[in-house]
Write a structure and sequence with these properties.
121 residues; mainly beta; seven-stranded mixed sheet; four-stranded antiparallel sheet; 11 strands; 0% helix
Length: 121
Amino acid sequence: QVQLVESGGGLVQAGGSLRLSCAGSGLTLSIYAVGWFRQCPGKEREFVAAISWSDISTDYADSVKGRFTTSRDNAKNTVYLQMNSLKPEDTAVYYCAANPRRLSRYEYDYWGQGTQVTVSS
């Protein structure tokens, strides 16, 4: 059974940092493109960041560029989202997703259950 499990969310003050983890089971994340998304109550889910299976390419939403970094540790079958200089508007449930094709802002086959990130002002 394929599972993606996010962890690392929590409450942080504005300007602080958090690192989210996306651990895979039932699939080898090193051969998947992995994306990060977030959703606030009453809003549509939005793309945050993505990393290609080869690690050659990354993509970031303009709203997080320069503050967030995604990376992977293949030995741990885990992808990370390092979030620095957090702002209250970054508050959301964050999801990771995987697809066995190219890096994408839209097309993902597997999704995690989400982890809450709350940034206080």
